[in-house]
Specification:
Length: about 230
């Protein structure tokens, strides 16, 4: 009887370990083609191109979105942005041609932290705040540290989503951690511009989008695995 109990316990433990084991890495960019991506709300890819092993846009190409939906995952990537440039990576995106990706998905911000120029915000010229700097959960949580490299230099980024727990990493440092749909998130949401957008309704999964904000931006070594 005792041996049966021990066997059952070991079996349950092994099943638990197996269930929590990450999936295999899958490349989202082969360095040669735009496979795994399409222009948001369209079929095929328009404007974005492969240049020197990077997926990039010169601007005014529209956003790029993954062919697949993703739920719990670890997504690694490298990126760089032109001086004074702005971009981002959205996740949990619902593809709705009536609205851009940021209407539904949280954003891993990408921007020239040091050189982005002042911009018009409701008739007032302002500079970016901490919640708008690289690796922030855009306009919700600022990065805990500012470790972005200068414009034109490659950075390593990572987004980890496990259930409702989300992390943003930048150059090996975890700079953002939050509970998607949690009480603190709801309080931050109430002070944001997202309250009446699809963004405000948490969801389990969605697409990943690369933002074309009108500036040159490059991505490479993009890979993902399920958690």
């Amino acid at each position: 009887m005792k041996s049966t109990y021990v066997f059952t316990l070991l079996l349950l433990l092994s099943m638990s370990v197996f269930a929590s084991k990450p999936g295999k890495w899958k490349s989202l960019f082969d360095g040669k083609t735009t496979k795994n991506w399409h222009s948001y709300g369209k079929t095929g890819v328009s404007g974005w191109m492969v240049m020197d092993g990077s997926l990039m846009t010169h601007g005014k190409s529209g956003d790029l979105v993954s062919d697949e939906d993703f739920e719990s995952f670890e997504f690694e990537f490298e990126f760089k942005v032109k001086a004074k440039g702005n971009s981002g990576i959205m996740y949990k995106v619902i593809e709705d041609p009536a609205h851009p990706p940021y209407y539904s998905g949280p954003e891993y911000q990408i921007i020239d932290d040091k050189g982005y120029p002042p911009f018009n915000d409701g008739g007032k010229m302002v500079t970016i705040n901490d919640k708008q700097k690289t690796a922030a959960n855009y306009d919700m949580q600022p990065p805990s540290q500012f470790v972005a490299k200068d414009a034109g230099e490659w950075n390593t980024g990572k987004i980890i989503i496990k259930g409702n727990q989300v992390e943003h990493w930048l150059n090996g440092v975890k700079v953002v951690a939050y509970e998607y749909g949690g009480e603190e998130w709801k309080a931050q949401l109430a002070k944001s511009k997202f309250t009446k957008w699809t963004y405000a309704t948490p969801r389990a999964k969605g697409k990943i989008a690369l933002q074309d904000h009108g500036d040159e931006v490059w991505f490479k070594n993009m890979r993902i695995r399920s958690l």
